Amino acid sequence: MANNVNIKKLEADLWEAADELRANSKLTSNEYCMPTLALLFLRYAYGRFKMVKADIDASRPSRGGRVMPVEERDFRAKNALYLPEEARYDYLVNLPDGISALGLKDKDGNPLNSLGEVINNAMKLVEGQSEQLKGILPKNYTYLPDEILAKLLRIFNNQNLDDVGGDVMGRIYEYFLSKFAKAVASDDGVFFTPKSLVKMLVNVLEPEHGVMLDPACGSGGMFIQSGDFINAEGNNANTQMTFYGQEKVEYNAQLCLMNLAVHGLNGKVVSGDAANSFYHDFWNLEGKCDYVMANPPFNVNKVNCETAYSAGRLPFGLPGYNDKTKEIGNANYLWISYFYSYLNARGRAGFVMASSATDSANKDKLIREKLVKTGHVDVMVSVGNNFFYTLSLPCSLWFFDKGKKKELKDKVLFIDARQYYTVVDRTLNEWTEWQLRNLQAIVHLYRGETDKYKALIDEYWRTINEYVYEHDSGIWYDTSLIDPKNPSFSGVLGALNILETTFKKQINDDKDKLKNVKNRTEKQDLKEVILHNEQCLSEIVSLQTVVREAIWLTDKFGTDGDYKDVLGLCKIATLEEIEEKNYSLTPGAYVGVAEAEDDGVDFKTRMNEIHCELNELNREASSLMDEIQKNWEKLI
Q: Residue 328: phi, psi to the nearest 5?
């Protein structure tokens, strides 16, 4: 199985190749997105087809010395798509030029004269094998030149996609979705919610089994992450959970159903006017859901109040509206009311909402007051800027729980995470996996689940131990830095400083290698130096991150997990305190402002210096490679 570094490289390489192909064509991102994702889906389906077929063949009965042929029902029994030969990826990628001369026919007997027509036929054949995909896959490949289609097929004909397995294919599909999301936005909002926000919702809700609804499902990220969470717990998401979605924009619904299929999940998704959640509860799920998750479009206006009122799901009444136009000026509290009304007696909801909704006035404030008094508001989280691909605005995460423990019924946990994030680039922030686990740990302590907190601490130690022992650096045994009877994560951070010497020695060794490069035959050595540098840097930065996040958590709550309010970060407030704040649900109003923390700048500075040296070394190697290549070209 490929490691995380290799998978990231595979994601980036595939995207770079596919996007370069688009850039050299006359296609817009919108025109290119769906056909590309559908081919990626077909590549996944073929990889899974091969794997399942091998499993079926291994146990196939024989009669009279003849092995019984594989049938469609054999694949259905294993929850996999059967692919007719003309829909298999190897068939498509190996077709020669000059399709019209091959005499190919589609499923209805019509001649196929181009690669686009052949792929359209393949998509129809796949839809014939899946009720969930019927009418969903694109069949407009004749709009793309055959040359581009052939190159795109070859890009995804990467052997590594078979090596990494179906779970990573899902990850690559989502990676492409996220990259397209920066360039493709529908009229009704972004179709892709960044994964770290979705994971935070899932981590707090901790779905197990039952009915889940996303009434603004976009490309289905809530379903995918919930499925991953359930499967990671050792259960089967398809047998434990029923997924329902409403998505007004048909394009987004198509992305969602393909996304579900790539991840091996079943779901029911409706699109079009009947999926407009302001006016329709299409699946008739009011009061029936175990979980509701959503990232709805914020601050929608001009919603007809009379039609919305007739559609129900408004336990706290209508938000404010214009008497003359009969239109609701801001639909945020329509969404909030819907999410609450869908829940059954023990249901949980988690959703993304505009920050302004936590403290909005007038009718919104009256609805919020009624909501707070139910005792079902569970957790409120403030999120900083730049968490979305196409928006820079801050947001908040809301969580309801109708099955709260009795001792928590009159309490709400507030978390202000606006200063807690990792910078991806100039316009995008996210929570790393460890940061997500830390925020989840605060919720666990609020719920009294100290066993889950301690399990996280054990995982931190295990991760650090594995790295140290694997690299045999010896730092673990320096008792002047770490007391083995009472180890601390801060001690580990101090011990990591010793790695500076190791890395500087490696840099000098690599520089000596570069000086000894004299001809093209050693070009591979240069590549190995660069890859080695990137791997080393990735490992030390990863370990540094693990240790820093462990310190962040244990400095606040210790290794045993004793919850306490932390200034500037979290506070458990009573309903009386919330009433005193005029029913505001803004975390900052409760947690206060923290003092500036010492961030260990010395270690960070040293690691940055090493990073710069490694980058400089890589630049030297690349420059030498260019020079060697030029010299070689002169020779030939």
A: -85, 125
Rounded alpha-carbon distances, angstroms, from residue 428 to 326, 360, 383, 394, 608? 39, 27, 13, 12, 21
Q: Which residue has the higher pLDDT, 57 or 94?
A: 94
What is the tens place of the pLDDT at every residue in 521-557?
A: 455 666 666 666 666 666 666 777 787 888 899 889 9
Instruction: Measure the CA–CA gap between 433 and 384, rounded to whole angstroms.
Output: 17
Per DSSP, the three-state class of 157 is coil
What gap in Å lies between CA 258 and CA 261, rounded to an integer? 5
Place of tokens 């594995």: 466
How many Å separate Cα 571 from the centre of its chain? 28
For 159-165, the CB contacts below 8 A with 24+ separation are: 160/2, 160/6, 160/10, 161/10, 161/43, 161/44, 161/47, 162/47, 162/50, 163/1, 163/2, 164/1, 164/2, 164/7, 164/10, 165/1
Q: Cα(155)–Cα(21) distance, rounded to whole angstroms?
A: 10
| pLDDT of 465 | 74
Which residue, among 463, 411, 349, has the nearest Cα to 575 in the 3D structure? 411
Could you tell me the two tokens for 599? 């961030």
Query: Are the C-beta atoms of 287 and 178 separated by less than 8 Å?
Result: no
Q: Report the C-alpha gap between 361 and 88 in whole angstroms.
A: 57
The structure's pTM equals 0.81
Domains of the chain listed by start with CATH number: 4-59+67-171 (1.20.1260.30), 185-448 (3.40.50.150), 468-562+601-635 (no CATH)
DSSP assignment letter at 594: P
